[in-house]
Design a protein that fits this description.
The complex is a heterodimer of chains A (about 280) and B (about 260). Helices cover about 75% and strands about 0% of the residues of chain A. Chain A contains ten helices and no strands. In chain A, helix 1 (about 10-30) packs across helix 5 (about 115-145), helix 3 (about 70-105) runs parallel beside helix 6 and helix 6 (about 155-185) packs antiparallel against helix 9. In chain A, about 40% of the residues are buried. Chain B has about 260 residues and is of the alpha/beta class. In chain B, the strands form two sheets. Chain B has a six-stranded mixed beta sheet with strand order 6-7-8-3-9-10, sandwiched between helices. Chain B has a four-stranded antiparallel beta sheet with strand order 2-1-4-5. The chains are: A mainly alpha (about 280), B alpha/beta (about 260).
Amino acid sequence: MTTPPPLPSRARWFWRTFAAFVRREMASMSGYRAAFVTRMLGFASAVVGLVFLSRFVGAAANPHLAPYGGNYLGFAAIGFLATELQQVGVSGLARRVRTAQIMGTFEAELATPAPAWMVLGAAPVYEFGTSAMRSALYLWGATIVAGLHLPRANALSVAVAVPLVLAAFIGLGLLTAGSTMLARRLNPISTVLGSLSLFLSGVIYPVSVLPPWLRHLGRLLPLTHALECLRGAFLVGATPADLAGSLMALALFAAILIPLGAATFAFALRRARIDGSLTHY
Amino acid sequence: MSAPALSTTTTPAVVVEGLGKVFHPPGGALDLLRGRLFRAPVRALADVSFTVAAGEIVCMMGPNGAGKSTLARILGGLLAPSSGRAVVAGHDAAASSPELRRTVSFVVGDERSFHFAVSGRENLLYYAALHGLDARTGARRADELLARVGLATAADRRYREYSRGMRQRLAVARGLLGDPSVLLLDEPTLGLDPVGARDLRAFLRDEVVRGAGRTAVVCSNDPGEARALADRVLLLAGGRLEREVAPARIEAELGLAP
């Protein structure tokens, strides 16, 4: 037994944990070849599906698509990508908690000196990373196979919008993970949010086709604003000033949801240490 | 087997004073209909007090549900006590600080606590990172520990291919990654064959604890384990500390002597 070296800074420590997590995930993935093949097939079918969907819709000129440059292929592709990003943000952390509880690794991980946020944070960051790579591949696939063009993308707007979109989704994710720990089961927030968003946020059709009261309801969902920002930035080259309303809404979602989610999650962890439910599932 | 030598110092490594733990299990749907949020409280520990000297091995024994694992989890900072206090290596266990979790290692015997699809080495590398070790130091430490627990040749085999004994030894290796001064061992030889259990106990006693000047609290139901490992045995029943027993007399005290 020797005098232990000082603990690294939190940032360095998280980076080491993240790198080890990614390495383990890669090693783990190589052990599940069928899952890898299935994922690739799913990806290919999504790209092919997009081709036929755009052929079908693109055949008719649609006035509702005018604000998006009449580009339904781009409209739908961004809709699907943002939905996936929301799914990862909302359920990534909750899934990590549940998996660790079910696999029995949670207690062993929390018994190490690493803070809980570090133990759990690597998974959602990894999932965001892989989701970004999948999105890039998806866009590339749509460009090659379906002829997607995004010639008017505004890089500044994308750079401003993406962090705000992620922040709003991370806030939702913290809230979901906290309530998952408290309820000791994957709670329905992500499912309900997914269905509502598909319906009200305009994932596959513009919200302009909805009646006004449903359009107002849709504005209560972060994905609605995320889609407005991303489609504006990618499809018609909207500037940050053009997107000010939606960017502000996303900032507001992040400002409310991140502290609320973090407080819920911290409370859930404290409760788990009191009622001994770290390993319950 | 030679009787373990007791090394004592004046500073206790573990101080437990009036420790209590009450669980309030959440109610189900029927309880809610009856207007109750929680089921009847369960007292897992009541007014437990003892000390463990630095370098000592103390075995907590008692029937299932006696409170052994609850006690170990409190000492490891994984569970908050309801009353009393526990200080381990100078750290308040209730605070569960990174410093406490660095000094104290809770060796979880649960087989499910590892990733089945990756190798023993990969599992250790991940936990080394959680201990703050950089990749190179972590790899060196993992290889060193794998060799120490006799898993060097199986280091790259997937965990799911490990036998029960190999899994237990890997759990010990994981517990030593942070070079802790206090080890909490919950049923360390559970499910092992007699020879495997004997070898692991000898390794724990002679190399992991005594050889490295560590302190250990072992939770076990096995009198043979208590005799082989412990300097003192504390008997728990119904969440209370009943009495202290000399390891050599454990079978007689439990009414198991022929």
